[in-house]
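Sample intake sheet
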Amino acid sequence: MEEDWNLFERDRDREPILIFMNTALKPKAPYLGFGQLVTIVFNMYSLWDLSGSNKQKAQQLFYSLEDKLISRMKDRGVSLYAGRISANHKMEMHFYAKDDWDGELELKRMLADFPSFRYYFMMKHDPDWLFYLEEMIPSPLEEQWMRNAKIVYALKRHGDKLDIAREVQHWLHFPDATPLIEVKRKIGQLGYRVVASKLDTRGSTDMHVLHVSMKHTLDVPTVNTVTRELFLLARESGGTYDGWGTKLVLRFPAKIRVYLKRMMKKVLAVFK
């Protein structure tokens, strides 16, 4: 089964939640024969007690449980894991199980190895996958937040100092010059610097491009706030937000690794 796991934030009934889901299921959903929605809800208070009220340890305990449960469900071949919703003090795991699977007894057996974890589960007939397609699938703005998270985590893995503010470039596209000029006026009032506005004929639509920049940090909440502002500003004028880019600001150990890597390439080039 193809997988593409993504994480994004959303407000649900004025409550912030995190959705971690397999977006690769979307093109073929609903899956014929997998019409039972199985939701398992874990109370995080029990995990906090086990971890000595350490939030990070409690999360790791849950992720360990999640991995084992996914593995067991996968080995049985009875379900597809749609994803997880992290809400206030609870974690919700959502599976789509086979129509003929009598899962209540089997789920209890699977979860018997975790007696200290407080949970309950529900099984619901959902052959059209409405929960997945309507309640979990990200909106266009949330898709941008998914991309933000992927870029930020990639930068972090490469040793970037995300907490250091630097110039970040952003691009907006418009179908004609009139909305671009209007957004260009508003952008200046919001503290952005206009780098360029130009016509890009390589695309078939939205060929008018507004390139702006702003100095900010690259932690996910900050990047999401900035991209939300630009996304909505572009959409209100009939345009689209087309992403961002910046330069790496490396921590010292990462700088050493980059330097050594370059030196090794030069040394190897001598012996070619």
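Comment: The chain is about 40% helix and 30% strand. The CA atoms of residues 181 and 197 lie 9 Å apart.
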